[in-house]
Amino acid sequence: NALGERFMERYDPERMELSTRDRVALAAYTEIKEGRGTEKGGVWLDLSHLPREVILERLPRVYQTMMEVQMLDVTREPIEIAPTAHYSMGGVWVRPEDHSTDVAGLYVIGEASSGLHGANRLGGNSLIELLVFGRIVGQAAAHYSVNLPAQTRSAKAIARARGEVDRLLAADGTENVRALQRAIRDMMTEYAGVVRTEAGLTAGLAQLDEIEARMANIGIHPDIAGFQDLAHAYDLKSSALSARATLEAALERRETRGCHNRSDYPDMDPAMQVNLVWSPTEGVTREEIAPVPEDISALIREVSADGKLVE
Q1: Cα 141 to Cα 147: distance, rounded to the nearest angstrom
Q2: Residue 130 has pLDDT above 90, yes or no
Q3: Architecture of domain 153-311
Q4: Structural domain boundaries in the chain
Q5: Whole-number mean pLDDT of the chain?
Q6: Which residues on neighbouring strands pair with residue 45, listed in sequence order?
Q7: Residue 22: which residues within 8 A CB-CB, separation 6 or more?
Q8: 108: alpha, beta or left? (left if phi > 0; alpha if psi -120 to 50)
Q9: Contact 252/285 with Cβ under 8 angstroms?
Q10: Which residues belong to the active site?
Q11: What residues have CB less than 8 Å from 33, skipping those under 6 apart?
């Protein structure tokens, strides 16, 4: 209760349009940052005031996981928690009608795609999203493929990819790939996590510059276990790309909207009701949100959350 009261003193949940999960994360973040966290950098979440049958009915996976991993009964004992990255509301730019991209024949669905969730996501939408756009994209890709005169492959793209693999396998630098992955993870947690500021995002970009410079000196060492270093190297490259896109877009969005919380810009800016599109060559550009088609708009209705457990 004290945690919730301190949260209510600092933030207006109605204005921020936060889900229950986001409110807990923001409250936990505040407690940790202000020095009231646990020794391990978390906070205690106590569910013991709820009837046991309610927890078993509504939070069965939480109960089961904690029992299996830590032999901890959440109906009686508190859980140590901390905010962490849970979901992405952005991804590869796609056309809204069929999730195709600027690369002919490339389609993207799921969390890797952009534009579906807006400022926040609804719990459970990820599975529905895969089912809906899995069908749409499958049909679009089949239509694209069947109308091609030939299934051509780009010799230039294949040669470039093979060349990159060869260069990575020959890399014998002193930087450890996994250590750089951890460095990006820790930097993003610190500067692009629950609460963001101009100073923090700028500091994050400066650290990312240093990490990318170190990436030029990585060492790849295949062993009897396989090519795990090579796989981690590609993950590192994509993580650095995603981190830069996130940091620069968050720096550009000088407002608080949905799960994006800028403590230096606590209000919502109507002019920022746009999608931010990032590319390595053009940086961040603003894209107007397409209007909802009439046939879809006719199906939209308000759904009451009264008496329901919402994320």
Answers
A1: 10
A2: no
A3: Up-down Bundle (1.20)
A4: 2-81, 87-150, 153-311
A5: 87
A6: 79
A7: 120, 259
A8: beta
A9: no
A10: 21
A11: 195
pLDDT digits (tens, 9 = 90+) for 182-236: 999 999 999 998 899 999 999 999 999 999 999 999 999 888 888 999 999 999 9
In this structure, the number of other CB atoms found within 10 A of the CB of residue 250 comes to 22
CB 183 within 8 A of CB 175: no
The 10s digit of each residue's pLDDT in 146-175 is 989 988 888 999 999 999 999 999 999 999
Instruction: Residue 184: count other Cβ atoms within 10 Å of its Cβ.
Output: 22
Q: Which residues contact 265 (CB under 8 A, 6 or more apart)?
A: 254, 255, 256
Structure tokens belonging to residue 252:
């550009």
Is residue 123 within 8 A of residue 310, CB to CB? The reply is: yes
How many residues appear in the chain? 311
Closest CA to 208 of 225, 191, 195: 191
Q: For the domain bounded by 2-81, which CATH number is listed?
A: 3.90.700.10
